[in-house]
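Comment thread on ticket #2218

A.B. wrote:
> Attaching the input chain for the structure job we discussed in standup.
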Amino acid sequence: MTVLPDDGLELAAEFPDVSHEQWQRLVAGVLRKSGKDVEGAQAEEALSTALEDGLRTRPLFTAHDAAPEPGFPGFAPFVRGSRAEGNTVGGWDVRQRHSVADAATVLGDLENGVTSLWLVVGEGGIPVSSLGRVLDGVYLDLAPVVLDAGPEVEPAARELLRLYEERGVAPEAVRGNLGGDPLGHEARTGRSYDIATVAGLARRCADTYPGLRALTVDALPYHEAGGSAAQELGASIATGVAYLRELTEAGLSVEQACAQLEFRYAATADQFLTIAKLRAARRLWARVAEACGAPAAGAQLQHVVTSPVMMTRRDPWVNMLRTTIATLAAGAGGADSVTVLPFDNELGLPDAFARRIARNTSTILIEESHLSRVIDPAGGSWYVERLTDELAHAGWEFFRTIERDGGQAAVLRSGRLRTDLATTWAERSKKLSKRREPITGVSEFPHLAEKPVERRPAPEAPSGGLPRVRRDEAYEELRARSDAHLAATGSRPRIFLAAIGPAAAHTARTTFASNLFQAGGIEPVTDGTFAESGATEVCLCSSDALYEEQAESVAAELRATGASHVFLAGRPGQYQGVDAYVFAGCDAVAVLSATLDRMGVSR
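C.D. wrote:
> Ran it. Output below, let me know if you need it in another format.
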């Protein structure tokens, strides 16, 4: 609602009111010029974008796009935040992940903006016996510690609690999470461990350490297996419900059990979807707490991690842009803690520069952009409120299907959840292959001459459970073939781009073809003649008008000089001598893979 100033000045007063139907007619007129003859709601639908989970983003949202009242921060259903003050006091908790026993790096992070530690302990991480050394010099009463110890959660927790006692930290000053997550570990590895151990830790935390939690509901395994936002939400809520059942059976009240859980979600470069997902997650958990008879205990504590799925190995510098947008979305979505993965995270152990950029991303957004000064800054947006509501319903429906099939443990062990996630990823992979979901620096604007970024190997991540997918994996395989060919022969596979006509006619399609073939590690050659290029295949690039006049004759000339395969950049046609067409929306991965095969580039 717009509140007019005291003088009654309304800037739009001189303009006539416009209806939604009038706007749709204008949209139809514009679309008609581009060859689409649609009217009314169909014109608006033509500009809509399909999302996963059956959701659609329309081009215009108005006050008529009603959504449930989100309430106030700190009050059920907690859509606008779990705490009344939000992150306005000091910003969100900046949490950095550590998987090796390096005390100097830990202290360096804490001295330069990091406010809590996320320690991977046990197999593939920091040995339990090294916890004291890693935390040497850390003020444990000031820096919360979150453990990720898998089946070694009990000895790791015991060692951490011993350190608190040894260093004189009062029980009420202890903050953090012991990280018990049997179902999350099973999702990662296919192996579980006894939740009774974690329930005992939860009992101890509830009795002695009011600021320490015992369990993490980690949704990253489902996100990293290719799941959609709704599937991530549904699986996390189902996991949380499973833990509530176990904890209450172990003697904790519903309020005490809820206070032992912290939820971990992924933040992607799709900022609006991330914001809506975090808001929807709080609403869903509030509904669970309400159904359990403890509505006041439904404030979900959220730890948000920038998505590993979106990170690329080629041109990794672009990851800094992705993580910046993801961090902004996490902050705007009300995350309590945020972990920014360093831009070189997929290449091995991050170096000092990458860790510095990661922690400074949050610092800039909090201290310079003042993002945390407003609680739920996206709240009230008709689009965000509607997307939050639709995503909450989709997530709740997925949660209900899990419960109908016996709960989270059952769907993990039966393979049903794996199948659901794989189906979603298969559909998304088609978009990636067709570049409908572009990856800057990989499928779009790749840089073949970039110097590889090398890092020390990181500890091997747990495996054996759900797969870990990455957006760049299909293109990474193609580029790896090209790299191997370069190493073996001294040159990359090449394709000659035959530009027809003046620059104004061919530049757009020459640029398109160049980007396309470089995405597969194929070097485009534009200078000289085909015979001089060293290529065996060629792609014609020009305008539709010049194709009509010259495509067939140019193709014939090129074949006469040795071209074994002729592409044409543009809409598929019936030009004699042209073997294949490349165009926006074609299956780039299939085209590039087949091209490398013909060029003799081994798999």
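A.B. wrote:
> Thanks. Noting for the ticket: The mean pLDDT is 95.
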